[in-house]
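Private note to self, pasted from the team thread so I don't lose it. Backbone tokens:
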């Protein structure tokens, strides 16, 4: 069974996804567009059936007022588990597997489109050649240091640009398809 893995994420202009302490204040404090603007998030989420997160990302989003993944199956990829809030227990599973083995398991269980989120998790999937497309929204702010979206790779990952959208508030969203994998 074929499975697709996609990234949909926001970064500062200097390509950080969070401050070093995990804080997203630079994102939530950014000049916002009209309140009904979701930058294509819901349209993207409608295509994904499984969300794969790292533990740090899970711990952060589990504190949000609104769970951002609706009723989607959520897989947390971590070598150690953390507490799952009771209201999320039916949606969240924990695995400690290399990305390739996780993808094989999820495909065998019927997943067809993975939304991969979290810095280390995205980096691991990219390094394993498992990401098919990336949608990156750049927020017009420089934060200087933090959690990088990209890290060291064992090989080059060539991307093909497929679209760019500009928003009134200065956000720029670019979409890429991975052109080749190892």
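Design output:
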């Amino acid at each position: 069974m074929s499975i697709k893995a996609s990234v949909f994420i926001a970064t500062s202009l200097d390509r950080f996804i969070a401050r070093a302490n995990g804080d997203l204040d630079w994102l939530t404090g950014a000049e916002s567009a009209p309140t009904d603007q979701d930058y294509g998030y819901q349209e993207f989420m409608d295509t994904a059936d499984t969300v794969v997160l790292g533990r740090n990302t899970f711990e952060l989003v589990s504190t949000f007022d609104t769970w951002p993944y609706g009723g989607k199956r959520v897989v947390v990829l971590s070598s150690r588990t953390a507490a799952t809030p009771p209201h999320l227990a039916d949606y969240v599973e924990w695995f400690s597997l290399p990305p390739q083995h996780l993808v094989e398991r999820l495909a065998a269980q019927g997943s067809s489109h993975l939304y991969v989120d979290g810095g280390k998790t995205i980096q691991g999937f990219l390094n394993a050649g498992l990401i098919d497309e990336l949608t990156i929204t750049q927020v017009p702010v420089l934060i200087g240091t933090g959690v990088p979206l990209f890290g060291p790779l064992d090989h080059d990952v060539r991307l093909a640009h497929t679209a760019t959208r500009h928003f009134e508030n200065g956000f720029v969203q670019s979409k890429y398809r991975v052109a080749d994998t190892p």
